[in-house]
Every structure is written in structure tokens, then in C-alpha cells.
Amino acid sequence: MSAVTELLQQTVEGVGAGAVYASLALALVLIHRFTGIVNFAQGELAMLSTYVAWQLMASGMPFWLALPVTLAVSFVGGMLVERVVIRPVEGAPELTLVIVTVGLFIFVNAAAGLIWSFTVKDFPQPFPDGGIDLAGVSVGWSTLGIIGVVAAVMGLLYLLFQHTSVGLVMRAVAANPTSARLSGIRVGRVLMLGWGLAATVGAVSGVLVAPLLFLEPNMMGGVLIYAFAAATLGGFDSPVGAVVGGLLVGIAETLAGAYVDVVGADLKIGVPLVIILVVLLVRPQGLFGRAAVERA
Amino acid sequence: MSTITGILRADGARAGRTRAALIALAATVAVVGAPFYFAPFQVFQLTMVLVYAVALAGLNLLVGHGGQISLGHGAFFAAGAYTAAVMLDRFDTGHLATLPVAAAGCFLLGLGFGVPALRLRGLYLALVTLSFAVFLPLLLKRLEPWTGGSMGLTVDKPQPPAWSGLAEDQWLYFLVLAVTAFALLVARNLLRSRVGRALLAVRDHESAAEVMGVRLSLHKTLAFAWSGMFAGVAGCLYTWVIGFVSPDSFSFVLSITLLAGLVVGGLASLYGPLLGAAFVMYVPNVAQDLSEAAPGVVFGLLIIAVMYVAPAGLAGLAGRIGSAAARRLPRTRTPDGTHTARPTPSGTSATSADPTPPEAEVQAQAEPVGAPPRTEEE
């Protein structure tokens, strides 16, 4: 295998990993746009959704039926979390919000351990083995499947936001909650909807990543860091940025692991750390974000 | 009658001071006597409470008083612990020598972290510190020649000198007690100095503080440095007490647990770190009996609950009960003034018909606890 094919092969694998980060980053960005909160519990909610899918399949449901049921459960779950956990501290200082979502993180993680135990579970791979060969670069069906699912989610979200009346209302709330409320929009319900959507998108990332990582309560901890890096790189208020950021982070991670000796396989988690630091120091609003103008 | 109440009041003030002294004396006796009363394992637990208290005092400087969020203080803790362990293991230095090195090293590390923290606020700072906390254990595994990799390092614990006649756990307790007392004193004095007031000003309103002549960059960076130093000292004590370090002891869960403990104990309160440390030590212990996951469930629920009902934490809650009691007391005074609100030291008013003493008792004990912004005379 020539060096170029090798590089392309690594890049393809990076894109596959990046698509998963992109979907979790998308969930983070959705919530950040609506509520200004960075949800530290996003990965854990996705993990919980994955357990729901696992439970459904363990009771005999086929994957492609379990998936929509899981997404529906996640949607309702996300709305409930907003209503029950987040609403009481709406508008509180950032420190309070961070601490509440961290509390939610700890709680959900432990609750999953309590219900399903901390032993690792096998999660079935929904896509067939093997793949196609493109000029010496083998692309697995699972990679293609992940990319396809994430692209479909992106497309659906785009249609929802740009071409439906609900989407219009949601964009109004994200742009200016006060004006939206004054023009008769029930802002609280829209926020619930936003959290529900984010939980659904997060659930997609959880279900996609579970076959690769094995299912256990701490599965999403690492993925969350990559998603943070992706959202930071793309800009925390840009859904497109989240996806582009996710893909870039995935590629950077894979390439650094393969070609930079110091990084190797074990220190890959340093890559998102470096990306977050560099982006925040050089261009804090990210690639696609708008710089916030602040009046003291 | 006014003279009578006047006398009573003056008497009460003097009695209050005597009572405070008595409480301090009783606390000292309890703290010093504890290792002789409890079993070795319980003494070890108390020692760990003191260790965590130092780390939480540092985190409190940064989060409670500085208003900056750190989800990565476990990393400083780990750095301190590993500094001590590597010095003991590779260079065979004495235990006492590790303390200043760990403190200085973590101070510098904090200083280095404080520089990016200048440009990062709130959420972003939380992100960076969290990812650092996730990264550090893996780095420790990689640096195997120094850190022993994932096997960790086993080092000697400080041995009690022969003249003391103490058992190992008792000697450790007193060593840690001395360091903790000193560290808490430093933290308290730091907060009452120029630096502390500048920190509070920056937390409450950056621009206003800057206009008043506070150098933002200097104080925000220093807050990180001081805070990292305390966490490093706590890590060093941890190595002394446990005698073993491994990367898995310092996963990012530790960082989150520290923040959780501080929040539950009470942000920006002098006694919050102590209460939080007890919480971090004992709640997992008690809950562990139920199941492996129970500590997390309890922790998570408590953190959220504390944010809803008592943002000032346990320390603040005690203070609030105290002031609520104080507000209610004047109303319970009967018109003829025979029942004074404060129980007299002789206890004459503490008849069974008098409803006030329980509340007043709560207040008397709670008063020093819930004292975050007070500037009482020393």
C-alpha cells in the first residue's frame, strides 16, 4: 500500500469517527443556541438512550424498529429533562448552570450503572461487514452507514428549521427569546422542544458509536470531549460548524494517532484538548461562529 | 426594667464570648483527642477528610471567591501526588521535602493554566479544565519510567518517631492536621488581604473592579496559581497517607467529585471546604453499602438539589437557619420581658414551657458557620 493510499485510508476512518463526534456536537450546539447552556450531561443522555435501544433489542425487537422507538423515547426524555431539571435554574449564573448539568452527568451515569450494571455489553452492528474498494482504499459499510445516518439527521434538521413553521418559531426563540415571547410564542415549550431534539440527535450518536466502543456507562466520556472540541472548532452557535468541526476533529485525531509518534494510540485524547485550547486562544468564536460583542 | 435588660444584654455578650471560647476549646480537644478515641480505620478516614479539605479550600478560592469554573482540579491534585511519589521513589528524599516542591510545582502549573484562563470565561474554562483532567491520567501512564505507568508507585509512609509513642495512623493524622490547619489559615488570611478583596471585586463585576485599579490579568492568573497550589499540597498529603499512587486514582471523576463536594459544602464560605470534604469522604462510603452506583446517584441528586434550594451549600444552609431563628426570636419575647430571647447562661429561662431554647441553640452554634461575607473583629 502506497503512502498516499495509506493516508487516504486513515482519512476515511477519521471521517467515520468524525461523523459520530459531529452528531453529538450537533446536540451540544442545538442546546447552546436555545438556552446558552453547554450541556455537560449530553454524552450521558446519549448513553442512556443507547441503553434503551439495547434493552429493546434484548427483548427481541429488530434494530431498525428499536431505533425509532429509542429516538422517540429520547425526545420525550430530553423534553422532561428541560422541564424538570433545567427550567428551575433558567437564567441563573453560568456557574450554576454548569454545576447543574455536571450534577445531571453524575446522576445519569450512576443511574445507568445502577440499572444495567457496569459490565460491558455487546451492541450489535446494524450495518453489514465488509465494504467497498475505492482505488485501493477500503471503505467499510459501517463507516458509510454512519456518515449516511448523520447526513440524514443533518438534512432533516435543516428542513425542520428552514421549511416548517415550528422551525421558524424555534429560530425566533434562539435569536431573541424576549421578542419571541412578546409576539406570543410559548418560549418554555420551544425550549423543551429544543432539548428534545438535542437528546434525539445525541441518541443517534450513541447508537452509532456503541458497536465500536462497547456499551457501558462510561462509554460517552471520551466522545463528549471530542464533541466539545468539534463544537468549539465549528463555533458553539453554528450547526454547520458542529458537523464540519466534528469531521475535522475526527480526521485530525486519526492522523495524529497514526503519524505522530508522541501521540500514538493512547494519547489521542490530547488532540481535542489541543484543538480546544488553540481555537479558544486564536479564534474564540470558532470557524463558523459569530463573535459575541459584549457591553460591560 | 430597662436596666435589667441592659444588664442581661451585657451579660449575654460576655457569655457569648465565653461560649465561643468554650466551643473553640471543645473543638480543639475533640480534634486532638479523636485519633486516641477512634479505631485506626476511622482515624484514616478523618485524615482523608483533612486532605480533601485542603484541596477544596483551594478550589473554593478559585470558584467560590474568584468566580472561575474549574472542572480539572483533580489534575492539580494528581500533579501534587505524583510529585511527592516520584521524589520519594526515585530520589529518596524525606517526606517533608516533598511538600514545598509539590506546592511550588503546582503553583507554577496553575500560573501556566491561568494564562489561557484569562481569555476563557465560564463555560470555556470549564471545557478546557475538564479536558485537561481527562488527559492527565493518560499522560501519567505514558511517562512510565518516572511514574511506573498504570501500575503506579508504592512509597513509604512517614513513620512516627520513637519518642512520640504514636501509632502510624495517629502520627499521619497529626502531620496532616498540622499542614491542613496551616493551609486553611493561609487561605483565610489570603482572602482577607488585598488579593482576596481584589478577587471578590473581579468576581462581582470585572469592569468595575478594573476601574477601581484591580489588575484583572494578574489576579485571575494568581487565583489559578494559588488554587492549584492548595490542590497540589492536598495531593502531596494524599501520597503520604495512602502510600500509593496510580493514574486511575486521579480520573476526571475526582475533579468532578471535588467540585461537587465544594458546591454541597458551600461556595465562598470559610467552613464550606471542611463540610464538603466530610461529604466527599463519607457519603460514598455510606452509599457504597447499597450498591456500586449509589454514591453517584446520591451525589448527582444532591448537587442539583443544593443548586435549587441552597445555593450557598450546607454552610449557607446552617447560616440561613441561624438568621431565620434570629429573625423570629424577638417576636417570641413576652411583653413583660421575663423571657429574654437569648438563653441566659445560668439557664433560668430554659424551663420546659419556653419554646425558644432549641432555636436559640441552633443559632448559637450556627453563627460562626454561615459567615461568608462578614468582617467581624478578630
Assign the structural class of chain A, choosing from mainly alpha, mainly beta, alpha/beta, alpha+beta, or little secondary structure: mainly alpha
How would you write the strand order of the largest sheet of chain A? 1-2
Number of helices of chain B: 15
Write down the secondary-structure element order of chain A.
Answer: HHHHEEHHHHHHH
Number of strands of chain B: 2
Find the biggest chain interface. Answer: A-B, 46 and 46 residues
Query: What's the CATH architecture of chain A?
Result: Orthogonal Bundle
Cα Rg of chain B: 23 Å
Mean of residue pLDDT of chain B? Answer: 78
Distance between the termini of chain A: 58 Å
Protein name (chain B): Branched-chain amino acid ABC transporter permease
Keywords (chain B): Cell membrane, Membrane, Transmembrane, Transmembrane helix
Membrane topology (chain B): Multi-pass membrane protein
GO molecular function, one term (chain B): branched-chain amino acid transmembrane transporter activity
Give the helix/strand layout.
The complex is a heterodimer of chains A (296) and B (378).
Chain A: H1 3-35, H2 42-58, H3 63-86, H4 94-116, E1 131-134, E2 137-140, H5 141-163, H6 165-175, H7 177-182, H8 187-213, H9 220-234, H10 239-259, H11 270-282
Antiparallel strand pairs in A: 1-2
Chain B: H1 2-37, H2 40-65, H3 73-91, H4 95-119, H5 122-142, H6 144-147, E1 153-154, H7 168-191, H8 194-204, H9 206-211, H10 216-242, E2 244-245, H11 252-265, H12 272-288, H13 294-309, H14 313-332, H15 356-366
Antiparallel strand pairs in B: 1-2
